[in-house]
Amino acid sequence: LMIFIFISILMMSRCFLFSAPPIFSEIGEEYLLNSVFFVNEGSPINFTVTAEDPDGDELVFWAENKFELLPVYTLSI
Questions:
Q1: Which among 45, 47, 74, 75 is most buried, taking Cβ atoms within 10 Å?
Q2: Is residue 10 part of a domain?
Q3: What is the DSSP letter of 21?
Q4: pTM for this structure?
């Protein structure tokens, strides 16, 4: 009976844990002008992903299949 009560208390305490999700900053702000995305032909597009955690938890970032684009005239509209 003592073990069952201890396990029940542990399970109940997990129900009350809450962690707010991280808040990501806008990507590509350096390329925006009046809500239009601008890049220079022949210059690679680079941007940094940043975020903050409202709870102050440490954030870890990683990337797979990273985006790469070198804008050229034929890609313009």
A1: 45
A2: no
A3: P
A4: 0.49
